[in-house]
Amino acid sequence: MINPAHLDLFRAVIRHGGMTRAAEALGVGQPHVSRAIAQLEADLGFPLFVRGHGSAVPTQEGEAFAHEVAQTFAGLDHLRHAARRIRDRGTGVLRVACQPSLAARLLPRALRRLDAECPGLRVSVHVPSPDTIWSWAASGQCDLGLARPRSGYTGVTAEPFLTVAAVCALPRRHPLARRRVVTAADLAEIPLISAGSSPVQAATEAAFAEAGVSPRFVLMAEYTAARCGLVAEGLGAALVDPVPARDMTGLAIVLRPFQPGIPIETHLLYPGGRPPGRLAGRLIAHLKAERDALG
């Protein structure tokens, strides 16, 4: 079996044109190089150099072998380059699926941090429904997901990421806008905009039932941005996610804490059975940093 260390020394002798010069360049003794080359020749069964006057001229067989060694090490250099590329940029496009509430600010800010670490990073961002995000995470169609909790999905690793309390969005000139806190009882006769079939809507209806109030839902809009837009037009009040709602400064709405509290949860998802890749792991760290900066 050929000793890889002997091949390294053989390449050095070829590159420097002699065993003495190769030894000096490598910081080792010349006898060490001579013994290694002699052992390599014994292993191969043919001489590699014509020795004399401090030089080492390759034999015809030595030149042919040097060509093969160069090709082998070129392949190793390619592997090293590929390893650096995988380390710095991952295995390809980083696929992220995110719910709308975090897709406008929190996720882009985390990606900006990641891009500063890994210039040239390729990322694909999708904003589908929560059920689609869970399905993609289960099937490996995305590397990372941020979505509302769902049940019934296997093959997904999910961990709590963010929990916020719903706030009440009101038209700016609404009488309740003067309140510091809005309660379920305050909204008893107010037109409301529901969140459709989402878990937030189920929690909202449970909160009203607990307070003994029958809510009057007149419109439905699944996403916070749409509900806030309807509120700004004076079409009702709505219980919304404060994270995206706070960014809608151009709308004529006010946000007030709501009692009883309604938690709105977001889970971090990735395919089960294996840990996130290096880049996905770094993005998770940046997402958590941006989450913690929300205050």
- Give the helix level as a range of percent: 40-55%
Gyration radius from CA atoms, angstroms:
33 Å
Query: Span from first to last CA?
Result: 63 Å
Using the alpha-carbon principal axes, give the shape. Answer: rod-shaped
Structural class: alpha/beta
Overall mean pLDDT: 88
Q: Report the sheet with the most strands, covering strand number, pairing sense and barrel closure.
A: 5 strands, mixed
CATH class of the largest domain: Alpha Beta
CATH A-level architecture of the largest domain: 3-Layer(aba) Sandwich
CATH topology of the largest domain: D-Maltodextrin-Binding Protein, domain 2
User: Can you identify the CATH superfamily of the largest domain?
Assistant: Periplasmic binding protein-like II
User: What series of H and E elements makes up the topology?
Assistant: HHHEEHEHHEHEEEEEHEHEHEEH
Q: Got a strand count?
A: 13
Number of DSSP helical runs: 11
Kindly report the spatial arrangement of strands forming the biggest sheet: 4-3-5-13-6
Report the uncertain regions.
Answer: none
